[in-house]
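quick one, 126 residues, struct below
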Amino acid sequence: MKILFSIFIIILISACTEPAQKFGNVEKGMSMQEVFLNSGEPSEKNKLGKLELWVYKEADRTVIFQNDSVLTIITSAEARADSIEMAVKKAGKDLKKEIIKTGEKIDSLGEDLKETFSKDSTEIHK
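---
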């Protein structure tokens, strides 16, 4: 009975570690194609702003891509939630910067239009 139990434990341990080994070669900076060739089709794919998340449930891994490149690999549910929150905050900051730039451009165009109309109206009143 002890031998049967030991064999069962060994099989269970090897079954649990096998999916994670598929991620042994996945590293930051790899392309989506490289991850796909290394780890196969993910269980889920999600887009979150500029980020794409590939979830490999059986291996308890989530690969986060930015611009077709691995940004990070998350290995547990808690870490996944924390890292996703941080990634969303970073994406939010990037978005905020872009909105501010756009606002500044609109303000500049508004000032140019005011100046143009101001010149036109003074010429009309002459």
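The longest strand covers residues 51-56.
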